[in-house]
Amino acid sequence: MLQSVEALLDPVLDASVREEWARLLEAGLPSQARHTGASNAPHVTLAVAERIGADADARLPGALPADLPTVRLGGLLVLPGRSGRCVLARSVVVSAGLLDLHARWPTSGESARVASAVCVAGTPRRRRPGCSEPRGPSGTIVDVAVPKVILFYVFTPVPDPDAIRVWQLSLAGSLGLRGRVIVSSHGINATLGGDLDALKRYVRGLREYAPFRGADVKWSAGRALDDGVTTALFPRLSVKVREEVVTFGAPDELDVDAHGVVGGGEHLSPEALHALVEAEDVVFFDGRNRIESEVGRFAGAVRPDVETTREFVELLDSGAYDDLKDRPVVTYCTGGIRCEVLTPLMRSRGFQRVYQLDGGIHRYGEAYGDTGLWEGSMYVFDGRTTVEFSPDAKVVGRCDTCGTPSRDVVDCADPACVRQMVRCPACTAGSAVCGR
Which of 333, 399, 424, 427 is catalytic? Predict the structure, then answer.
């Protein structure tokens, strides 16, 4: 049975605090109240800010009410107030005799999902306009998850990578996130998946560490795993310390300071990239692996035939691309991190005009979708494998068996092989072995 915020808190708050809580929730005005009594009296801190999504916290002694709300939005309790406006509660936990409640107004993007969740579960007092009958009996938990994926990196000196690893494992793990975090003395590189609210809290925690405060976090739509519970595209959380945050096999050639990589290429926004392309004969240089460029790339790009990032240094040293050393070369990769390392390697080997696409393909796709210079799908290192920027995305990949257009990337079925290939569903059904 759904209860209002007031009904939930009635058993454990004294009258003055209960009235202040109700007033703040009804008004939604910037205000903060603090009620403090003797050591054995209730105490609570309340804060409701004017902007949507502001947080309110309550910490109070008492027992957990037996009749809890049962509608959830991505793990948050949905609590309808007297005004009809719902509040989202992050958690209701009993610890050492304390009831902890963290509540906030829904954001504008969450409002429709909140209404849908309340509609599904119904309330004993009244149905929402337009609601159908409840899909389950009173007490059914309705979980309307909002899976997302974030991608970010920061190049900055890290004096104690092991300490950062422990902190990141604790922060991401406590929020139920999954994905990969790599830490080195050069910085941090992460791709994480989970519910929207948990990822927002992670980003807030990340930015509490001053060197990571300016992290450019890229967001994309996620997808829950097939277990129906896990709002992440990754099987587990992995946080590791490595010599490099992205493995080129040249850690001693990378120099970073508090502002980022020293001696890298000039960053170009998507708009600046278009201006450069209009003005000059630009060479696009793909800083990713072969399989990634097979399903998507910038038109006419140079696509090195490499299977791992480690192969780039040997390829550059071989002189294979010496003819590009005096031309404007724009490097690009998924989110930008590989180009941060690739461009200083190129410049130290005599490439004179080296640029990098700021924010990578991800940012370019946000700006232009499939109406610009990008063609095909963007390969990603999670359960999605590829993503498209619009329904109009071209299919530039070709099945390695029959040659038909395909954006399907599959793993080789040989347990001893780690290769991937572009293969259409029909040919995969016949054989999922790469043939090497």
Answer: 333
pTM of the model: 0.67
State which amino acid sits at residue 404. Answer: T
User: Which residue's structure tokens are 């009244």?
Assistant: 126
d(CA 18, CA 319): 74
For residue 384, which of 334, 345, 340, 427 has the smallest C-alpha distance?
Answer: 334
Is 147-245 CATH 3.40.50.720? no
Q: Collect all residues with Cβ–Cβ distance below 8 Å to 384 and sequence separation of at least 6.
A: 149, 223, 233
Q: Render pLDDT for 39-81 as a digit per residue (tens, 0 to 9).
A: 222 222 222 222 222 333 333 333 334 444 444 444 555 554 4
Q: Find out whether 237 and 179 touch, Cβ atoms under 8 Å.
A: yes
Residue 86 a catalytic site member:
no
What is d(CA 276, CA 327) in angstroms, rounded to the nearest whole number?
12
Residue type, 243: E
CATH architecture group of domain 256-394: 3-Layer(aba) Sandwich (3.40)
In the chain, CATH 3.40.250.10 sits at 256-394
